[in-house]
Protein backbone atom coordinates (compact mmCIF):
# COMPACT_ATOMS: atom_id res chain seq x y z
CA UNK A 1 0.00 0.00 0.00
CA UNK A 2 1.14 3.54 -0.75
CA UNK A 3 1.81 5.56 2.39
CA UNK A 4 0.57 9.13 2.09
CA UNK A 5 1.40 10.14 5.68
CA UNK A 6 4.11 8.64 7.85
CA UNK A 7 5.37 9.59 11.30
CA UNK A 8 8.21 8.12 13.36
CA UNK A 9 9.47 9.04 16.83
CA UNK A 10 7.44 12.23 17.03
CA UNK A 11 7.45 14.19 20.28
CA UNK A 12 5.67 17.48 20.79
CA UNK A 13 5.87 19.68 23.89
CA UNK A 14 4.11 22.74 25.20
CA UNK A 15 6.66 24.35 27.50
CA UNK A 16 8.18 21.28 29.19
CA UNK A 17 5.01 19.17 29.06
CA UNK A 18 4.94 16.32 26.51
CA UNK A 19 1.57 16.37 24.73
CA UNK A 20 2.42 13.92 21.95
CA UNK A 21 4.69 10.88 21.93
CA UNK A 22 4.02 8.95 18.70
CA UNK A 23 6.48 6.16 17.97
CA UNK A 24 4.96 5.24 14.63
CA UNK A 25 1.94 6.21 12.54
CA UNK A 26 0.95 5.87 8.91
CA UNK A 27 -2.02 6.59 6.67
CA UNK A 28 -2.36 4.68 3.41
CA UNK A 29 -3.87 5.83 0.14
CA UNK A 30 -7.61 5.20 0.07
CA UNK A 31 -7.77 4.47 3.80
CA UNK A 32 -10.45 5.98 6.03
CA UNK A 33 -8.91 6.12 9.50
CA UNK A 34 -10.63 7.33 12.66
CA UNK A 35 -8.34 8.83 15.28
CA UNK A 36 -10.27 8.48 18.52
CA UNK A 37 -9.67 9.36 22.15
CA UNK A 38 -11.07 11.40 25.00
CA UNK A 39 -10.82 15.20 25.19
CA UNK A 40 -7.23 16.28 25.80
CA UNK A 41 -5.72 13.10 24.35
CA UNK A 42 -3.77 15.10 21.74
CA UNK A 43 -5.85 14.28 18.64
CA UNK A 44 -6.32 17.83 17.32
CA UNK A 45 -2.70 18.77 18.00
CA UNK A 46 -1.55 15.71 16.05
CA UNK A 47 -3.84 16.66 13.16
CA UNK A 48 -2.38 20.20 13.04
CA UNK A 49 1.13 18.75 12.90
CA UNK A 50 0.16 16.40 10.07
CA UNK A 51 -1.30 19.38 8.20
CA UNK A 52 1.99 21.27 8.74
CA UNK A 53 0.28 23.95 10.81
CA UNK A 54 2.57 23.17 13.77
CA UNK A 55 6.14 21.93 13.85
CA UNK A 56 6.83 18.98 16.18
CA UNK A 57 9.41 19.38 18.92
CA UNK A 58 11.12 16.21 17.68
CA UNK A 59 10.63 13.77 14.83
CA UNK A 60 9.63 14.00 11.19
CA UNK A 61 6.40 13.93 9.22
CA UNK A 62 6.64 12.35 5.77
CA UNK A 63 4.02 13.35 3.23
CA UNK A 64 3.97 11.20 0.10
CA UNK A 65 7.39 9.91 1.14
CA UNK A 66 9.00 13.35 1.52
CA UNK A 67 9.84 15.38 4.64
CA UNK A 68 9.07 19.04 3.86
CA UNK A 69 12.07 21.10 4.93
CA UNK A 70 11.17 24.65 3.91
CA UNK A 71 8.13 26.89 3.66
CA UNK A 72 7.81 26.45 -0.10
CA UNK A 73 7.62 22.65 0.22
CA UNK A 74 5.18 22.93 3.12
CA UNK A 75 2.97 25.22 1.07
CA UNK A 76 2.96 22.76 -1.86
CA UNK A 77 2.10 19.77 0.34
CA UNK A 78 -0.52 21.68 2.31
CA UNK A 79 -2.32 22.36 -0.96
CA UNK A 80 -2.59 18.60 -1.51
CA UNK A 81 -4.59 18.32 1.70
CA UNK A 82 -7.81 19.88 2.96
CA UNK A 83 -8.89 20.25 6.57
CA UNK A 84 -12.33 20.72 8.11
CA UNK A 85 -12.58 21.99 11.67
CA UNK A 86 -15.21 21.68 14.39
CA UNK A 87 -16.24 25.28 13.69
CA UNK A 88 -17.16 26.00 10.04
CA UNK A 89 -15.07 29.23 9.96
CA UNK A 90 -16.92 30.70 7.00
CA UNK A 91 -16.51 34.16 5.49
CA UNK A 92 -19.49 36.51 5.75
CA UNK A 93 -19.99 36.43 1.98
CA UNK A 94 -22.18 34.02 -0.01
CA UNK A 95 -22.04 30.24 0.00
CA UNK A 96 -20.68 30.35 -3.56
CA UNK A 97 -17.86 32.70 -2.53
CA UNK A 98 -16.96 30.48 0.43
CA UNK A 99 -16.83 27.25 -1.57
CA UNK A 100 -14.97 28.81 -4.49
CA UNK A 101 -12.35 30.55 -2.34
CA UNK A 102 -9.68 27.85 -2.49
CA UNK A 103 -10.04 27.51 -6.25
CA UNK A 104 -9.81 31.27 -6.75
CA UNK A 105 -6.56 31.60 -4.83
CA UNK A 106 -5.24 28.73 -6.96
CA UNK A 107 -6.09 30.93 -9.98
CA UNK A 108 -8.40 28.40 -11.67
CA UNK A 109 -10.43 29.75 -14.61
CA UNK A 110 -13.95 30.98 -13.95
CA UNK A 111 -15.79 28.24 -15.85
CA UNK A 112 -13.84 25.51 -14.09
CA UNK A 113 -14.51 27.14 -10.71
CA UNK A 114 -18.22 27.42 -11.38
CA UNK A 115 -18.54 23.79 -12.51
CA UNK A 116 -16.57 22.44 -9.56
CA UNK A 117 -18.51 24.52 -7.03
CA UNK A 118 -21.87 23.42 -8.45
CA UNK A 119 -20.72 19.80 -8.29
CA UNK A 120 -19.53 20.13 -4.68
CA UNK A 121 -22.78 21.80 -3.59
CA UNK A 122 -24.79 19.05 -5.23
CA UNK A 123 -22.75 16.35 -3.45
CA UNK A 124 -23.47 17.97 -0.09
CA UNK A 125 -27.13 18.56 -1.05
CA UNK A 126 -26.96 22.34 -0.63
CA UNK A 127 -27.30 23.60 -4.22
CA UNK A 128 -30.30 25.66 -3.13
CA UNK A 129 -28.10 27.68 -0.77
CA UNK A 130 -25.66 28.89 -3.43
CA UNK A 131 -26.48 32.61 -3.07
CA UNK A 132 -27.26 32.65 0.65
CA UNK A 133 -25.06 34.77 2.93
CA UNK A 134 -23.08 32.45 5.20
CA UNK A 135 -24.27 34.33 8.30
CA UNK A 136 -27.87 33.20 7.71
CA UNK A 137 -27.08 29.45 7.66
CA UNK A 138 -28.00 26.94 10.34
CA UNK A 139 -25.21 24.96 12.03
CA UNK A 140 -25.74 21.93 9.81
CA UNK A 141 -25.90 24.03 6.64
CA UNK A 142 -22.72 25.89 7.59
CA UNK A 143 -20.83 22.65 8.18
CA UNK A 144 -22.01 21.29 4.82
CA UNK A 145 -20.59 24.44 3.20
CA UNK A 146 -17.32 23.91 5.08
CA UNK A 147 -17.12 20.32 3.79
CA UNK A 148 -17.95 21.46 0.24
CA UNK A 149 -15.16 24.06 0.46
CA UNK A 150 -12.71 21.25 1.31
CA UNK A 151 -13.97 18.66 -1.17
CA UNK A 152 -14.11 21.09 -4.10
CA UNK A 153 -10.30 21.16 -3.99
CA UNK A 154 -10.20 17.40 -4.70
CA UNK A 155 -7.66 16.86 -1.90
CA UNK A 156 -5.44 13.81 -1.87
CA UNK A 157 -5.84 13.74 1.91
CA UNK A 158 -8.94 14.93 3.77
CA UNK A 159 -8.43 15.82 7.44
CA UNK A 160 -11.54 16.11 9.63
CA UNK A 161 -11.26 17.57 13.13
CA UNK A 162 -14.56 16.57 14.80
CA UNK A 163 -16.70 18.36 12.17
CA UNK A 164 -19.99 17.04 13.59
CA UNK A 165 -19.34 17.67 17.29
CA UNK A 166 -21.47 20.82 17.61
CA UNK A 167 -24.45 19.55 15.61
CA UNK A 168 -27.70 18.15 16.99
CA UNK A 169 -28.19 14.38 16.72
CA UNK A 170 -30.50 14.24 13.66
CA UNK A 171 -28.35 16.72 11.71
CA UNK A 172 -25.18 14.89 12.73
CA UNK A 173 -26.49 11.52 11.56
CA UNK A 174 -27.76 12.89 8.24
CA UNK A 175 -24.53 14.72 7.45
CA UNK A 176 -22.41 11.76 8.57
CA UNK A 177 -24.31 9.47 6.18
CA UNK A 178 -23.96 11.97 3.34
CA UNK A 179 -20.21 12.35 3.88
CA UNK A 180 -19.74 8.57 4.18
CA UNK A 181 -21.28 8.06 0.71
CA UNK A 182 -19.00 10.71 -0.80
CA UNK A 183 -15.84 9.30 0.82
CA UNK A 184 -16.60 5.74 -0.28
CA UNK A 185 -17.69 6.67 -3.80
CA UNK A 186 -14.56 8.72 -4.45
CA UNK A 187 -12.13 6.50 -2.54
CA UNK A 188 -11.15 9.59 -0.55
CA UNK A 189 -8.16 9.13 1.76
CA UNK A 190 -9.42 10.45 5.09
CA UNK A 191 -8.18 10.95 8.63
CA UNK A 192 -11.13 11.66 10.90
CA UNK A 193 -10.64 12.86 14.47
CA UNK A 194 -13.57 12.05 16.76
CA UNK A 195 -14.52 10.88 20.24
CA UNK A 196 -17.84 9.50 18.97
CA UNK A 197 -17.89 5.69 18.76
CA UNK A 198 -20.82 5.67 16.33
CA UNK A 199 -18.99 7.90 13.88
CA UNK A 200 -15.99 5.59 14.08
CA UNK A 201 -18.13 2.55 13.26
CA UNK A 202 -20.07 4.25 10.47
CA UNK A 203 -17.28 6.03 8.60
CA UNK A 204 -13.93 4.32 9.18
CA UNK A 205 -12.36 1.09 8.01
CA UNK A 206 -9.53 1.41 10.52
CA UNK A 207 -9.05 3.11 13.87
CA UNK A 208 -6.21 4.42 16.02
CA UNK A 209 -6.97 5.05 19.68
CA UNK A 210 -5.02 7.77 21.44
CA UNK A 211 -4.58 8.33 25.16
CA UNK A 212 -2.35 10.89 26.87
CA UNK A 213 -0.58 11.71 23.62
CA UNK A 214 0.19 8.11 22.64
CA UNK A 215 -1.43 5.78 20.13
CA UNK A 216 -2.15 2.67 22.17
CA UNK A 217 -3.98 0.54 19.59
CA UNK A 218 -4.25 0.66 15.80
CA UNK A 219 -6.03 -1.76 13.47
CA UNK A 220 -9.14 -2.60 11.49
CA UNK A 221 -12.21 -1.04 13.10
CA UNK A 222 -13.90 -4.38 13.69
CA UNK A 223 -10.77 -5.88 15.28
CA UNK A 224 -10.13 -2.95 17.63
CA UNK A 225 -13.75 -2.81 18.80
CA UNK A 226 -14.02 -6.57 19.33
CA UNK A 227 -10.48 -7.23 20.53
CA UNK A 228 -9.35 -4.27 22.66
CA UNK A 229 -5.74 -4.44 23.74
CA UNK A 230 -6.40 -3.44 27.37
CA UNK A 231 -9.11 -2.43 29.81
CA UNK A 232 -8.86 1.28 28.99
CA UNK A 233 -9.51 0.64 25.29
CA UNK A 234 -12.38 -1.72 26.15
CA UNK A 235 -14.03 0.90 28.35
CA UNK A 236 -13.56 3.71 25.86
CA UNK A 237 -14.94 1.70 22.95
CA UNK A 238 -18.12 0.73 24.73
CA UNK A 239 -17.49 -2.71 26.20
CA UNK A 240 -20.20 -2.58 28.87
CA UNK A 241 -19.32 -5.84 30.63
CA UNK A 242 -15.76 -6.23 31.94
CA UNK A 243 -15.22 -9.24 34.21
CA UNK A 244 -12.26 -10.56 36.18
CA UNK A 245 -11.61 -14.29 36.36
CA UNK A 246 -9.19 -17.16 35.90
CA UNK A 247 -8.79 -19.81 33.21
CA UNK A 248 -9.34 -23.11 35.03
CA UNK A 249 -9.05 -25.43 32.03
CA UNK A 250 -8.41 -25.40 28.30
CA UNK A 251 -9.00 -27.88 25.51
CA UNK A 252 -8.60 -27.40 21.75
CA UNK A 253 -8.60 -23.61 22.07
CA UNK A 254 -11.70 -23.47 24.27
CA UNK A 255 -11.02 -21.93 27.70
CA UNK A 256 -13.16 -22.37 30.79
CA UNK A 257 -13.04 -19.16 32.82
CA UNK A 258 -14.22 -19.01 36.42
CA UNK A 259 -15.97 -15.73 37.24
CA UNK A 260 -17.66 -15.49 40.64
CA UNK A 261 -18.06 -19.30 40.55
CA UNK A 262 -19.80 -19.04 37.19
CA UNK A 263 -18.36 -20.88 34.18
CA UNK A 264 -17.69 -18.88 31.00
CA UNK A 265 -16.58 -20.71 27.83
CA UNK A 266 -14.32 -18.60 25.61
CA UNK A 267 -12.25 -19.22 22.48
CA UNK A 268 -8.81 -17.77 23.26
CA UNK A 269 -5.05 -18.22 22.83
CA UNK A 270 -4.44 -17.62 26.54
CA UNK A 271 -3.43 -20.55 28.74
CA UNK A 272 -4.75 -22.44 31.75
CA UNK A 273 -3.98 -20.76 35.08
CA UNK A 274 -3.89 -17.20 33.70
CA UNK A 275 -5.80 -14.42 35.45
CA UNK A 276 -7.88 -12.73 32.78
CA UNK A 277 -10.26 -9.88 31.98
CA UNK A 278 -13.30 -10.94 29.93
CA UNK A 279 -14.71 -8.23 27.65
CA UNK A 280 -18.28 -8.63 26.39
CA UNK A 281 -19.86 -6.10 24.05
CA UNK A 282 -23.58 -5.49 24.77
CA UNK A 283 -24.62 -6.16 21.17
CA UNK A 284 -23.13 -9.68 21.48
CA UNK A 285 -25.47 -10.67 24.32
CA UNK A 286 -28.70 -12.31 23.09
CA UNK A 287 -31.81 -12.44 25.32
CA UNK A 288 -34.34 -15.30 25.30
CA UNK A 289 -37.54 -15.88 27.21
CA UNK A 290 -37.02 -17.69 30.51
CA UNK A 291 -38.13 -21.33 30.49
CA UNK A 292 -37.54 -24.39 32.63
CA UNK A 293 -36.47 -26.15 29.42
CA UNK A 294 -32.98 -25.76 27.95
CA UNK A 295 -32.82 -22.62 25.78
CA UNK A 296 -32.82 -23.09 22.00
CA UNK A 297 -29.48 -21.49 21.19
CA UNK A 298 -26.15 -22.53 19.67
CA UNK A 299 -24.27 -20.25 22.07
CA UNK A 300 -22.04 -22.07 24.56
CA UNK A 301 -22.84 -19.62 27.36
CA UNK A 302 -26.40 -19.35 28.66
CA UNK A 303 -27.28 -17.82 32.03
CA UNK A 304 -30.52 -17.55 33.95
CA UNK A 305 -30.49 -13.88 34.85
CA UNK A 306 -32.56 -11.39 36.82
CA UNK A 307 -33.25 -8.05 35.14
CA UNK A 308 -31.90 -5.18 37.26
CA UNK A 309 -32.50 -2.21 34.98
CA UNK A 310 -33.97 -1.25 31.60
CA UNK A 311 -33.20 2.16 30.10
CA UNK A 312 -33.41 3.91 26.74
CA UNK A 313 -30.05 4.26 24.99
CA UNK A 314 -30.67 6.16 21.77
CA UNK A 315 -32.17 3.81 19.21
CA UNK A 316 -31.79 0.76 21.46
CA UNK A 317 -32.57 -0.25 25.04
CA UNK A 318 -29.92 -1.10 27.61
CA UNK A 319 -30.76 -4.11 29.78
CA UNK A 320 -28.63 -4.81 32.86
CA UNK A 321 -28.90 -8.28 34.40
CA UNK A 322 -27.54 -10.19 37.36
CA UNK A 323 -26.42 -13.69 36.43
CA UNK A 324 -23.86 -14.13 39.20
CA UNK A 325 -22.10 -11.11 37.68
CA UNK A 326 -23.50 -7.98 36.05
CA UNK A 327 -24.13 -8.39 32.33
CA UNK A 328 -25.40 -5.76 29.86
CA UNK A 329 -27.26 -6.24 26.58
CA UNK A 330 -28.54 -3.84 23.92
CA UNK A 331 -31.89 -4.73 22.34
CA UNK A 332 -34.37 -3.06 19.99
CA UNK A 333 -37.78 -1.75 20.99
CA UNK A 334 -39.32 -4.64 19.07
CA UNK A 335 -37.36 -7.18 21.13
CA UNK A 336 -38.25 -5.37 24.35
CA UNK A 337 -41.97 -5.67 23.53
CA UNK A 338 -41.74 -9.23 22.22
CA UNK A 339 -39.92 -10.50 25.31
CA UNK A 340 -42.14 -8.38 27.58
CA UNK A 341 -39.17 -7.55 29.79
CA UNK A 342 -39.73 -6.19 33.29
CA UNK A 343 -37.32 -5.33 36.10
CA UNK A 344 -37.07 -8.17 38.61
CA UNK A 345 -38.12 -10.89 36.18
CA UNK A 346 -35.97 -13.74 34.89
CA UNK A 347 -34.48 -13.91 31.40
CA UNK A 348 -31.98 -16.14 29.58
CA UNK A 349 -28.81 -14.34 28.46
CA UNK A 350 -26.64 -16.15 25.90
CA UNK A 351 -23.20 -15.34 24.52
CA UNK A 352 -21.16 -17.17 21.90
CA UNK A 353 -17.71 -18.36 22.96
CA UNK A 354 -16.23 -16.47 19.98
CA UNK A 355 -17.92 -13.20 21.02
CA UNK A 356 -15.96 -12.82 24.27
CA UNK A 357 -12.50 -11.31 24.23
CA UNK A 358 -9.97 -12.25 26.92
CA UNK A 359 -7.13 -10.02 28.10
CA UNK A 360 -4.30 -11.32 30.25
CA UNK A 361 -4.38 -9.66 33.68
CA UNK A 362 -0.80 -9.23 34.78
Automatic annotation (TrEMBL):
Keywords: ATP-binding, Molybdenum, Nucleotide-binding, Transport. The keyword ATP-binding applies. Coiled coil: none annotated. SUPFAM superfamilies: MOP-like, P-loop containing nucleoside triphosphate hydrolases. Gene3D superfamilies: 2.40.50.100, P-loop containing nucleotide triphosphate hydrolases. InterPro entries: AAA+_ATPase, ABC_SmlMolc_Importer, ABC_transporter-like_ATP-bd, ABC_transporter-like_CS, Mo/tungstate-bd_C_term_dom, Mop_domain, P-loop_NTPase, Transp-assoc_OB_typ1. Pfam families: ABC_tran (PF00005), TOBE (PF03459). Residues 296-360 form the Mop domain. One of its GO terms (molecular function) is ATP binding. Residues 5-237 form the ABC transporter domain. PROSITE patterns: ABC_TRANSPORTER_1 (PS00211), ABC_TRANSPORTER_2 (PS50893), MOP (PS51866). GO terms for biological process: molybdate ion transport. PANTHER family: SPERMIDINE/PUTRESCINE IMPORT ATP-BINDING PROTEIN POTA, SPERMIDINE_PUTRESCINE IMPORT ATP-BINDING PROTEIN POTA. This is ABC transporter domain-containing protein.
